[in-house]
């Protein structure tokens, strides 16, 4: 494996963290207009398999009906979106000092892994199709790898700093 300089490691760490923060923010803000997004998706889903088109239509009609009858229930989705934004703020710590704040990266990796049992336990209870549970699990995979690469680079940076300080 090629040895990277401190500057290269810091740049890679920063890039991975920024990418992860952007993903968190995007996934958060897309939870606010969920009814409008589902309306758009159902209107433009003709290229998708029928099973997914039907699922999207079912979800859209459920959300629309619920929002019309019980609009306050969407407040829960607003809090979900807000939580994504708050969690994104946590990753400012490792942007500033990656070695000292490596725990944030570890926290993120653990959270990504925890998506799997949640999806596989709550999915069947809530009558979520298996293919949709797998889509939900993909967020754990997509989130885990940037954090894992970041974690590895932070460990290399930590070792580099230890070797430099002992000279």
Radius of gyration: 20 Å
Tell me the helix content: over 70%
- Strand segment tally: 0
Structural class category: mainly alpha
Domain unit count:
1
Order of helices and strands: HHHHHHH
What's the overall geometry? elongated
Largest sheet: none
Q: Uncertain regions: pLDDT < 50 for 5+ in a row?
A: none
Approximately how much beta-strand content do the residues carry? under 5%
Helices, by number, come to 7
> Terminal Cα separation, in Å?
23 Å
Q: On the 0-100 scale, what is the average pLDDT?
A: 94
In a nutshell, what does this entry contain?
This protein is mainly alpha-helical and 167 residues long. The chain has helices at 6-29, 34-43, 50-69, 75-90, 92-96, 102-125, 130-165.
Written description of the protein model:
- By secondary structure, the protein is mostly helical.
- It has one domain.
- It contains seven helices and no strands.
- It is elongated and about 70 Å long.
What order do the helices and strands come in, and which of them pair?
Blueprint: H1 6-29, H2 34-43, H3 50-69, H4 75-90, H5 92-96, H6 102-125, H7 130-165
Short key terms for the protein model shown above:
167 residues, mainly alpha, single chain
């Amino acid at each position: 494996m090629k040895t990277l300089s401190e500057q290269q490691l810091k740049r890679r760490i920063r890039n991975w963290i920024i990418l992860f923060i952007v993903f968190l923010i995007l996934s958060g803000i897309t939870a606010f207009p969920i009814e409008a997004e589902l309306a758009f998706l159902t209107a433009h889903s003709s290229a998708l398999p029928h099973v997914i088109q039907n699922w999207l239509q079912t979800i859209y009609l459920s959300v629309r009906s619920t929002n019309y009858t019980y609009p306050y229930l969407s407040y829960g989705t607003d809090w979900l979106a807000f939580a994504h934004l708050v969690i994104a703020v946590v990753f400012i710590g490792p942007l500033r000092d990656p070695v000292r704040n490596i725990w944030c990266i570890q926290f993120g990796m653990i959270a990504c892994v925890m998506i799997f049992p949640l999806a596989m336990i709550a999915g069947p209870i809530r009558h979520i199709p298996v293919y949709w549970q797998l889509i939900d699990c993909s967020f754990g995979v997509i989130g885990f790898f940037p954090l894992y690469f970041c974690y590895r680079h932070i460990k290399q940076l930590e070792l580099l700093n230890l070797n430099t300080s002992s000279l």
